[in-house]
Give the backbone structure.
Amino acid sequence: MARKSKEFRQLFYQDSVQSARVSRLSTQSQRESEAFRRFKATLEGQPENEGKIFITNPQGFGKMSEKLMKFIRPYLHTTESYEDRLCLFDMAVLAWNLAILPSAKREEFLTSYLAEQVNPLDREALEMFVDFRDLLTELIQRKLKLFGKEKRFIDDFQLVEDDEELRVMVTSSLSL
């Protein structure tokens, strides 16, 4: 009799854990759907997006959010706050989009961008932008290695953190 009681407790425990897991996943899915709906509404309301058609996960294309997470995952441990992660994702998106450009245009952009941003007399700012360029170059090389055939530009993203979980929603467009 004691054996059945123990087996019953194990079965009951497994059922309870499974129910809690399903409930948690359902709630998480609802939060993700709501966050995506708000993100899409925000994008559709922006003047520069007037007339654009937003397609969710078109057939034949992988999810850009998954690709961006795979691309940036090795660097996430270097961040300590939401703001740090947001900055890292901004840099990753810049690197992703630059990697799609032909190398000559990419170099031209980097040179002009850094020239605009850095005061050559400010040694500390100059060192910071050298580090910035090095990381950006590393990210560009990573994008070319992992996703060299992916030609979609990342137009915008939204980073969502809750319950110590990090998710990203991405809008992208094909380069022409």
Remarks:
- The mean pLDDT is 79.
- The CA atoms of residues 71 and 146 lie 8 Å apart.
- The chain has two domains: 1-54, 55-176.
